[in-house]
Amino acid sequence: MSSSTIPAADSKAAEAHPVPDRHGKNLYTTDSELHGLLGLYLPPDLLRHMQPHFERLGALAGGPLDELAHTADQNPPVLEHRTRTGIDAQRIVKHPAYVQMERLALSEFGLAAISHRDETLGWKGKMPPLVKYVLTYLFVQAEFGLCCPVSMTDSLARTLKKFGSPALVERFLPRFQSLDFDTLAQGAMFMTEQAAGSDIAVTQTRAWQDADGQWRLAGDKWFCSNPDADFAMVLARPDGAPAGMKGVSLFLLPRQLEDGSANLYRIIRLKDKLGTRSMASGEIRLEGALAYLVGELGRGFVQMADMVNNSRLSNGVRAAGLMRRAVAEAEFIASERRAFGRRLADMPLMQRQLLKLRLPAEQARTMVFQTALALARSDGGDASAYPLLRILTPLIKFRACRDARKVTGDAMEVRGGCGYIEEWSDPRLVRDAHLGSIWEGTSNIVALDVMRAIQREDSLTALKRHFGALLSEAGVASGFSQALQGALERACALATCAAAAGGDALARQAASALYHCCSAIAMAWEGMRSGSAQRVQWAQLVLLHRVLPRDPLAPDALPTEWNAG
């Protein structure tokens, strides 16, 4: 029988088939917890407007976009150095599936441009950051790799607006605001060198001004994602600049010059990565490339830090989305798969394991919402919000990205042997999840950045004030409230020790403690405000299992006073 005459699978037979398959489910409409949170965090009129867009993207992510992501993952980009006629002309050949995802992300949903436009998706006026992050949260559940270029493009435009000269902004920003797929610009950032990973102070890439006063760059950059981007932010050391961080400046590097010719830099090779295989990452050699100075000389790292922090927040959002997809797949399997005469979801041990997967996924989701609100307030001119944003950003990058590695791996196990097969989403989720804890700062670097925020911005005071206020508003049972308050006090005391001289070894422990306490408080607040007893219970379990000491040789149970009036 030819393939064209094979009958379609009977829907009833498919439902009765012993191997569950969630493909085709709408990832937005099936996420009831997300609906409740959006009602708390978004204005009603904006939520009504965005509802059909969330539903459309949820449908795409659960079906067609997921198929494109799988295809692109299996067919990574290829670097070509010459045309078939022998002309030296580099290009990265991307699979059509990846290009179609670019069109969806950058043009149809405007994920990179949305924060830089006055109208997107039919909404007149500026969109709050949370809308962008909810769309990203849905998109990344299908495709993770592309979300890296999307985030860098968004972050580059933000940094250009914030630090670029008026002439530079006027000249180049419109391409980052465009939704026309044929003319819009993509962005990247080229920071890392072989000797300068997280230690930017030893940057060796050279910058100088030519006879016409134009800046030129020379040197090697070691990890460059989206290496064929239209523009990249690059760190370099101008001739005569001092050694160390104060000698590093920030430059905007165009891929093409005004006359349409290629700028003077080459992609040496593409990296063979564990994950994010759909998206190209490579090594760049700058050979006198023309670039534009962004901001002040010697302020490169400070200015680039704004771009990095925006990307770190995006990393946290993506980790939350990966966990949501992994948990939703595991819960679906457990509800549909039968063994020993019962559904897996009816087995107490499976119920416990699913709950252990659900908790970090919900913590990350809550912290995305809290951080997005802090970002909106800070960008809106509320000076008191910046110290809070400054600490929440590395907190979610540190902890959510680490949690995603374990959650995706454990969720794979729920599917059993099929979970280890590349036909399913699980292997891709596991491979992609390991990116978050490495790029834009490893766990040690980011935990130490939490301490730096405490030292330089008095961020611990802002954190304690904000989450203390949420706890007061929540109105949870007195015993639970006291437990949360006590845990927050102790976490802040530990963070104070970690931020003091000689306390570096405590940085990761302190960052985890702050994240767990703050997420538990915010989840309790959400549960009480939305009437979700389940969310309050999740907050209690976060405190019980991820914060407080427990006897590993005794059954655990919630303290009775946590639910007493």
What brief labels describe this structure?
single chain, two-stranded antiparallel sheet, 5-stranded mixed beta barrel, 13 strands, 565 residues, disordered N terminus, 53% helix, alpha+beta
Short description:
The chain is an alpha+beta fold and 565 residues long. It is built from 17 helices and 13 strands.
Please characterize this protein's 3D structure:
With about 575 residues, the protein is of the alpha+beta class. β1 and β2 form a beta hairpin. α4 packs across α5, α11 packs antiparallel against α13 (about 445-455) and α14 packs antiparallel against α15 (about 480-500). It has a 5-stranded mixed barrel with strand order 6-7-11-9-8. The longest helix has about 35 residues, at about 300-335. It has 17 helices and 13 strands. About 55% of the residues lie in helices and about 15% in strands. The protein is globular.
Backbone CA Rg: 24 Å
Query: How many helical elements?
Result: 17
Strand order of the largest sheet: 6-7-11-9-8
Question: What is the H/E order?
Answer: HHHHEEHEEHHHEEEEEEEHEEHHHHHHHH
Regions with pLDDT < 50 over 5+ consecutive residues?
A: 1-11
Multimerization status: single chain
What's the helix and strand layout?
Layout (H helix, E strand, L loop, with lengths): L10 H6 L15 H10 L2 H19 L1 H11 L3 E5 L5 E6 L2 H13 L10 E2 L2 E2 L4 H12 L6 H17 L2 H12 L9 E4 L15 E4 L5 E11 L5 E8 L10 E6 L10 E6 L10 E14 L5 H37 L1 E2 L2 E2 L4 H32 L5 H31 L10 H8 L9 H15 L1 H16 L3 H22 L7 H24 L2 H14 L19
Helix pairs in contact: 3-6, 4-5, 6-9, 7-8, 7-9, 9-10, 9-11, 9-12, 10-11, 10-16, 10-17, 11-12, 11-13, 11-14, 11-16, 13-15, 13-16, 14-15, 14-16, 15-16, 16-17
